[in-house]
DNA sequence: ACTCCTTCAGACAGATCTGTCTACATTATG
DNA sequence: CATAATGTAGACAGATCTGTCTGAAGGAGT
C-alpha cells in the first residue's frame, strides 16, 4: 500500500488532497475547477478520477482531512489544560490562533455547506464535523459541572461559529478576545462559578 | 418613473428582483444561472442586462433588497418593546421566527460571502449589512447601560451569527431558545442587572 | 398617426466545467 | 524478462454559463 516515501514525491492521492486543501479552502469549492486542482497537484486528470471517482468525492475527502486535522489540533489544545473550564476556553484560544494565520478563510464546513446542494456528501461531512464539535463542548460542559451541559455546549458552539464568521467576514481578528470573554461569562453563568479573569 | 401599478404585472426590474430573491437565496448565488432567473421572472434576457448591467450587479441589488427588508423587520421588532434589554432580546426573537419559515436558508450575506470573490460587490453589501447589525446591537447595549457597549454589541452579534449558522446547518430551529438564553446571560453580565426569566 | 421606449423571444459567440478516453511512460514484482 | 498496476499528457464530448445581438411587439405621449 506504499506510504513509506519521505524524500521522493508523495503519491498522486496525497498531492491531490494537498492541492484540494489549498485551492478549495482559499477560493471555494464551486469556484475552483478540476483543471486547476490537477495542475496545482502536478497530476493527470485520469489519476483524479481513478483515485476519487469525481469532484464531489474529492471535496468530501478534502473535508474529511480538515475534520481530522482540526480534531487533532483541538484535542491537543484541550489536553494541555487541567480543568474543564480552562479546556473549554482553550478551544477558543486555539481557534483564535487560526484567525491570525495568513491563509485563514473561515470554517471550511460552513463555506462548503453554503455552496453545496443539500443531502450530498458535503452535508454529510459537515454534519460529522459539527457533531464532533458539539460533543466536545457538551462533554467539557458536563465535566465542568454545568447544570445543563447540553445547553452550555450549544451556547459555546454558537460563539465558536459566530467568531469564525466574524473573523472571516469582518477581517477582525480581535474577535477572538470577544468570543473568549463571552465564553467566560456563559461558563460562569452555567456553572455558578466566579468568572474571574 | 412609473411605480403606481397594483393589479397589473410589476415592472421587469421588480420581477427580476423577486425571482433573484427566491432562487439565489434558496439555491445559492453561484449555483443559479442567469437563464433560470429570467425564466422564473418571465423576463427577456436583454431586460436583465439593460436594467442591471450583469449578474454581479443583480446579486448586489438582491442583497440590498434583503438588507432593507431585514432592517425593517428588526426595526419594527425593536420598536414594539420598551426597554433596551427587551429590545436586544427582541432581535433574537425575531430571528428565531425566521428559523421556522419553510423557506429559511440561513443568512443571505454569509452564504453569498462564502461563494463570492473578495473585494467585489457582494462583499460591499455584506459589509454594509454587518455594519448595520453591529451598530444596532451596540446602540442598544449603550442604551441598556452596559459598561462596555462595544464589547456587548460584538458578543451579541456572535450569538446572532452563530444561531443563524446552526439553524441552517443543523436543521435545529430550537437554537433560537439557546441563543436567547445566552444573550440573556451576556446582557446580565455586561449590565450587572439580574438575568431573571 | 407617429415616435420613442420598454420589453420579449431567442439565436449566437466565447468561455469554462465535468468526465471519458486513448496512448505512452514508469515502476515494482513474479 | 515479463506482467500488471499506476501515473502522465492531452484530446474530446457534452453540457452549461455569461453576455451580446437582432428583430419584432406593445404601450404611452405628442
Automatic annotation (TrEMBL), chains A, B:
The source's superkingdom equals Bacteria
- InterPro entries in alphabetical order: Homeodomain-like_sf (IPR009057), HTH_TetR (IPR001647), Tet_transcr_reg_TetR-rel_C_sf (IPR036271)
User: What are the HTH tetR-type domain coordinates in residue numbering?
Assistant: 10-70
Q: Which UniProt keywords apply?
A: DNA-binding, Transcription, Transcription regulation
Stored SUPFAM superfamilies: Homeodomain-like (SSF46689), Tetracyclin repressor-like, C-terminal domain (SSF48498)
Organism the protein comes from: Streptomyces beijiangensis
Keyword check for Phosphoprotein: no
Q: What is this protein called?
A: TetR/AcrR family transcriptional regulator
PANTHER family on file: HTH-TYPE TRANSCRIPTIONAL REGULATOR YJDC, TRANSCRIPTIONAL REGULATORY PROTEIN
Amino acid at each position: 500500500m506504499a506510504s513509506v516515501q519521505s524524500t521522493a514525491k508523495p503519491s498522486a492521492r496525497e498531492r491531490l488532497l494537498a492541492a484540494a486543501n489549498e485551492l478549495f479552502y482559499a477560493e471555494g469549492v464551486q469556484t475552483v475547477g478540476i483543471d486547476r486542482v490537477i495542475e496545482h497537484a502536478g497530476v493527470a486528470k485520469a489519476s483524479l478520477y481513478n483515485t476519487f471517482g469525481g469532484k464531489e468525492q474529492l471535496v468530501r475527502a478534502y473535508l474529511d482531512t480538515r475534520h481530522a486535522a482540526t480534531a487533532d489540533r483541538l484535542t491537543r489544545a484541550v489536553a494541555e489544560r487541567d480543568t474543564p473550564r480552562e479546556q473549554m476556553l482553550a478551544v477558543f484560544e486555539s481557534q483564535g490562533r487560526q484567525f491570525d494565520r495568513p491563509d485563514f478563510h473561515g470554517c471550511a464546513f460552513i463555506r462548503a455547506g453554503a455552496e453545496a446542494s443539500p443531502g450530498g456528501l458535503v452535508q454529510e461531512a459537515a454534519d460529522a464535523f459539527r457533531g464532533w464539535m458539539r460533543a466536545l463542548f457538551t462533554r467539557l460542559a458536563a465535566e465542568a459541572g454545568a447544570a445543563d451541559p447540553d445547553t452550555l455546549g450549544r451556547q459555546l458552539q454558537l460563539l465558536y461559529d459566530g467568531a469564525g464568521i466574524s473573523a472571516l467576514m469582518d477581517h477582525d481578528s480581535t474577535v477572538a478576545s470577544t468570543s473568549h470573554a463571552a465564553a467566560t461569562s456563559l461558563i460562569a453563568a452555567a456553572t455558578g462559578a466566579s468568572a474571574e479573569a
